[in-house]
Write a structure and sequence with these properties.
The chain has 174 residues and is an all-beta fold. The protein has no helices and twelve strands. A five-stranded antiparallel sheet has the order 1-9-6-11-4, with no helix packed on it. It is globular and about 65 Å long.
Length: 174
């Protein structure tokens, strides 16, 4: 008969794999944060930590969802007034573009471009009022996870949009 005593405890993780280390950003938009996601693998597969309070306090995500993007698709442009997006990219080949339209920001009209996915697993935090978009540059459907700081309210959505080819944003998805 199987008992709880038959189970073997996991071994502690090594400290040689960094956990959610910050990645420096050239010409960083104020309030944006980019963190390296680390993956631990064994013969069964792998595990990637997407968000953790192990390195310090975090705003707990009240709403977590998985987004898919078809090959070549563009999901742009959007911004939020009341939440920060925390987007975890772990697969595929995606380009994420941010544009700062906050007139009171020291980085007003600054553009940040990130190539993320399987080759560059990251957690990207985007503060309120920073416009953003993403393009799947690969040949297969990809997914990414959003863990925003506020829950989605269908009666009062916190998302404002313009079309992906709007001339007011100095970036063209190709």
């Amino acid at each position: 008969m199987l008992t709880l005593g038959d189970f073997v405890d996991d071994k502690p993780w090594n400290d040689d794999i960094p956990l959610l280390d910050d990645v420096p950003i050239n010409d960083q938009i104020e309030g944006v944060r980019l963190q390296r996601l680390s993956t631990r693998a064994d013969k069964r597969g792998d595990l990637t930590v997407l968000l953790s309070a192990l390195k310090g306090p975090i705003v707990s995500p009240p709403h977590i969802y998985l987004v898919s993007a078809e090959p070549g698709s563009i999901r742009a442009w959007v911004y939020h007034k009341r939440q920060s997006d925390r987007l975890a990219y772990t697969n595929g080949d995606l380009r994420v573009v941010l544009y700062d339209l906050r007139t009171d920001s020291p980085t007003y009209q600054r553009l940040n471009i990130f190539d993320v996915g399987a080759a560059n697993k990251v957690l990207l935090t985007i503060p309120p009022y920073v416009v953003h978009g993403v393009q799947n540059r690969g040949t297969s459907t990809v997914t990414f996870v959003n863990m925003p700081t506020n829950a989605y309210d269908p009666a009062n959505p916190d998302k404002s949009r313009v079309r992906y080819d709007h001339p007011g944003i100095p970036y063209t998805f190709v």
